[in-house]
Amino acid sequence: MTSALIADGLTKRYGRRTALKDCTLDIPAGHVTGLVGPNGAGKSTLLQLACGLLDPTAGRIEVLGRRPVSGSPKVGFVAQDTPVYAGLTVADHLRMGAHLNPTWDSALAEQRIAQVGLEPALKAGKLSGGQRAQLALTIAAAKRPDLLLLDEPVAALDPLARRNFLQGLMELTAEQGMSVVMSSHLVADLERVCDYLIVLVDSRVQVAGEVEDLLAGHHRLVGQRCDTTDLGAGRFLVDQSHTDVQSTLVVRSTAPIDDPSWQVDGLNLEDIVLAYMGGAVGKQPDAVLRGNR
C-alpha cells in the first residue's frame, strides 16, 4: 500500500452550505503529513470524512485502501477540541479504551500516562488543556492504529504544552511507524514534526510534497520590475508583488537559479505556505497546480 488516504472529487454539503467541494488528493503512507490552509478550506471536514464520522455527499474517499468506517481500529482520531469525558478519571478512560478497542495496547497506554505525568485517579475535567490533549493522544495511539488523524490538536495549548505534545507525537511515530495526518495553523510546529506537507485552499490542493524537497525547490527572487509571463524553463510562479521599480517573486524551480539579475533567497516552510495561500487568490486551480508537475 502506498497511500494512507485518497480522495477523488470528494464533496460534503450541509443543506445549502458546502464544507468540502470536489477535493482530490493522495496522501502517501509512511509519512507525518501536515495539512494546512485557511479557515474554511475543508481540513476538518476532510479528516472527519476520513475517520468515518461523516459520509460524503459526492465523490470517493479511501483510507488505507478501504472505505472509512467509524470506530475502525486501524484509524485513530483526535478532534480539534481533544474531547475527553470530564466526569471520568484518567484510569476510566483507559479502561473504556481497552473495552472498545480489540487492538488496545494497555502497556503503551499506562507507559504514556506515567511518562506525561497524568494521575490515574484524577478526573479529566480537572486536567489542564495540555493534559487533556496528552490523554486524547494516548487513547488514540493505544489503539495501535495504522493511521493517526489529528485535527488542530495543539491550537489551544500554550507553547510549553505544545512542545510536550509534539515531542510525544514524534516519539510515538518513531516507535510505532504509523502514518500521521495533522492539520494545523501553526506552521512552525508542522515544520518540527512533519516530513510531508499539503496546502489546501478552497478544497483544492495547491502544493503537496516532501518538506525537504519543498524547501529546496522554492525561492524568493528580488530584482528589477519585470514581466512574469515567461520566467524560463523549469520555473513556476507561485506568488508575486511589484513596486514601480522592483519585482518580488516566489517561484518553484526544478533547477538551481544562477541568474545574476535576481537576488535569490531561500524560504522557510511558513513562507512557502503563505505564498501558496496568497497566490491562490483569484487564480484558477490549474494555474496554481503547475508547480506540482
From TrEMBL:
Pfam families for the chain:
ABC_tran
Q: Superkingdom, according to UniProt?
A: Bacteria
Which terms are listed as keywords in the entry? ATP-binding, Nucleotide-binding, Transport
* Name of the molecule in the record: ABC transporter ATP-binding protein
Residue stretches making up the ABC transporter domain: 5-227
GO MF annotation list: ATP binding; ATP hydrolysis activity
Record-linked PROSITE patterns: ABC_TRANSPORTER_2
Organism whose genome encodes this protein? Actinoplanes friuliensis DSM 7358
Check the record and name the SMART domains matching this protein: AAA
Which SUPFAM superfamilies does the annotation name? Answer: P-loop containing nucleoside triphosphate hydrolases (SSF52540)
